[in-house]
Amino acid sequence: MRSLPWRRHARTTTPARLTATVLMGSAAAVAALVATDVLPVPSWALDGIDVASHQHPGGAAIDWDAVAASGQSFAFIKATEGTGYTNPYFSSDSAKAAAAGITPGSYHYAKPEIDARTQARYYAAQLATGVSPSLPPTLDLEETGGLGPTELQNWVREWIDEIKTLTGRDPIIYTYYSFWVGQMGNTTEFSEYPLWLAYYNSSLPDQIPGGWDEVTFWQYSGSGSVDGVITDVDLNTYYGTDEELQALTGTAESGTTVGDATEALKPIQDAAVDEAETTNAVQHSAAVLGLPVLNIPLSTDLLVNLLGLVAGEVSPEVVLQTALNSGFDYQTSQTITDAGTETRDADITLPQGRISELVSTVLGDGNGTVTLQGVLRVLNEFGAQDYITNLAGHVNGSAYSPAG
């Protein structure tokens, strides 16, 4: 299938197939068209992109202000893949997109050879580090993992069941037309969930697969060009108004694993969006001047991932990389990671209210910046005293005194 040329705004022209049908004046052809419900993209449909670490070659920034100015209304950001990969840009891209006025979403790239519920839990752990409200959690299904149609259907069913338990939200399903028809046996079991269909053509297929009556999102190109993104990028259309898009966004339900974590981390996420607004302006100004722009990490990323490590949901490798990205030297970054790992293994539990209070204290300077002093305060609260002395010398050259 061919990719469409780049476009930044919703298509307003009528597909050739519809034009030909009308000109022919054939009652039978018109009836067939209506029966298959294939319509042109309405003028009120919204454009959006989806991005991953590929859109940050060599650590380059995405100019989210320019993306928004180009007419993009939403952005799906890759969060995880399988059970061993987390997009290091997920948290910051989510916050920067939101700060630019773009509705953020996320997706998990499925590896069906690995247990479905384990992957859903791995993805859910990262959802709390993104911005909320956001679009529903999304399953990106493009591989079989060696499973046949019935086995793959079972895998999808288990993944959906687990992610609904963890978030209380119905997920979006992303897939290719040919994949669903061939590898999923064109099952209609999952047609109650929103469909994000990849179909690289000038119009949607005559019949939507899987028993869906309509698509919610259509990915029509995998090699588009959008202002603010220096690489090719996937282009999408949302079949609804901005009001409907906002209605689709939401937060994980209170009482679920992700919902409770999101509530505890809300002060961080609010600070992250505030910080991202300033960061976006800096990156955009540099881009306008024609300067090469490296991605500026948010200081809140480290705190979010450190708390995730303490909770046993984020890997030490992610924390180490985040600390390095935040500007700490390798020794300090490794020590922070080791301390977080120790607190995880100690299995110390704090009430959700105390975590929220602790986070608010760390951000208490009012500018949303997380410092090493704040990181030490978190580690002390969780009992990592063995590492406090080692790290204290890095805090303005003075000893660290835990808050009373």
TrEMBL record:
<dbReference type="GO" id="GO:0016052">
    <property type="term" value="P:carbohydrate catabolic process"/>
</dbReference>
<keyword id="KW-0326">Glycosidase</keyword>
<keyword id="KW-0732">Signal</keyword>
<dbReference type="Pfam" id="PF01183">
    <property type="entry name" value="Glyco_hydro_25"/>
</dbReference>
<keyword id="KW-0378">Hydrolase</keyword>
<dbReference type="InterPro" id="IPR018077">
    <property type="entry name" value="Glyco_hydro_fam25_subgr"/>
</dbReference>
<dbReference type="GO" id="GO:0016998">
    <property type="term" value="P:cell wall macromolecule catabolic process"/>
</dbReference>
<dbReference type="GO" id="GO:0009253">
    <property type="term" value="P:peptidoglycan catabolic process"/>
</dbReference>
<comment type="similarity">
    <text>Belongs to the glycosyl hydrolase 25 family.</text>
</comment>
<feature type="signal peptide">
    <location>
        <begin position="1"/>
        <end position="31"/>
    </location>
</feature>
<dbReference type="GO" id="GO:0003796">
    <property type="term" value="F:lysozyme activity"/>
</dbReference>
<dbReference type="InterPro" id="IPR017853">
    <property type="entry name" value="GH"/>
</dbReference>
<dbReference type="InterPro" id="IPR002053">
    <property type="entry name" value="Glyco_hydro_25"/>
</dbReference>
<protein>
    <submittedName>
        <fullName>Lysozyme M1</fullName>
        <ecNumber>3.2.1.17</ecNumber>
    </submittedName>
</protein>
